[in-house]
Amino acid sequence: MAGSALQRWWRAGAGLFAWRPRLPWRSSGPGRLEPALVELLRRTSRSFYLSLRFLPDCTRDTLALAYLLARAADTIADTALVPAEERGLLLEALRRRLSDTAEPGLDRLASRLRGADPGDAERRLLLHLPQLLDCLDRLPPGDGARSVMTLQTILDGMLLDRLWFPGTDTAGLRALASEAELEHYCHCVAGVVGEYWTDLHAAHLPGVRDRAAALRPLGARYGKGLQRLNILRDLPRDLRRGRCYLPAEELARLGLAPADLLEGRAATERARPLFEALSRRTLADLDAGWEYVRLLPRGELRLRLCSAWPLLLGVETLGRLWRAGAWLDADRLIKVRRPEVYRLLVESAARAPSRRALDGLWRRLRTGLPPSA
Asked: Is 285 in contact with 225 (CB distance < 8 Å)?
């Protein structure tokens, strides 16, 4: 018994970090990422790359590919490399290309990238888009279909975002109409990712397959909770880009219009009840995400950790936002610094074999936050 517990600790804790080489991906076989794309992933998102390194081999490359494609779509939506009036057309073309290899609408993208700085990170990612799409075409049928459906839904959310927020600065500031619109948007761009994460692992891991019916709705709430957190964290910056994701009907109940939020600190007190309500809703979804982690099979320690890490960092970020209370301060910087991230990863890895110990870490990070909605 003691030996078994020690082995589980080593696999999830110290051994987790000792076993993996820097680039663990194999570059042969359907859906396998080539080394150049693995390096692109590392440069594009160091934190997500760190999580993906420890996923099971059967799902890691597919999830990495889907992530890079979603990041490429998000880059098209916001990059200054492409004129604003062309971004929506390119997103629509990318959505069609996901299921139609003959779609020619992305051809114009290459011409927009020719004069850009060769070292520009956005240019580097978009130049790899044809290669990423070729990898998507070569995925095994089941994984390919799941990936295409998820990416199409994410692109639907991005296109809705462009429809709702056509402006790029405060002169064109608009708000979502209702909580229903906010919920729908969060599902399109993030809730569907939680469902995809579940479906992909259920297709390859029998232990997850047996629990998929319970995991799937929790996974959707997990994703939506992280997206709501992003909205709260990025609120001051989004307002200056003409985007207010706070529902207009809820602002109106407080006698506020979206433009009032541009007053920054002066408007914070008036809008505080809404910020606190949205924080409670966010926390409720993150709590559902933690139930997702707890429900994962005990034998899938790597998957449990990779699922827990975004939540642990998310609830730590929400706690800092809550304690700072400067929801509209454009000068605030709420960020978990890299040394703190690494400490959290190591501590969670050491606790992973024990559900009780991992729950204790969640409760500690949650201390000081209000009851969830």
From this structure: yes
